[in-house]
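FIELD: query
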Amino acid sequence: MSIENHKVVAEISVIPLGKKYSTDTMTDSTSIGKEVAIAFESIQKIPQVKVTLNAMGTEIEANNIKDILKSIDIAHQALKDIGVKRIISTIRIDERLDKTETLEDRINSVKEKLNN
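FIELD: result
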């Protein structure tokens, strides 16, 4: 059984290495928050996806896997455009075909179980 209008969700973590630019006065900073923000904002511009930031990564929801992969590509390109020399990404993709379930649906399902 396959649901025609199913959702594909992904959790990505993009780790930029070798920053070329710095807006900080600290050159030894290990912070990657500004780079993560740039990658996140680039994904937000894609109308076909819903994107949510969390403390350890970014969640993406789309109607197909192509838009998920496009989002990752765009995030990488945004980092390349600012001079990042190396990008390491971890990606988990869940393409559920038996029912339509959004990221919000998944969270609500767990919350309902917590209240029991």
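FIELD: remark
The chain has a mean pLDDT of 88.
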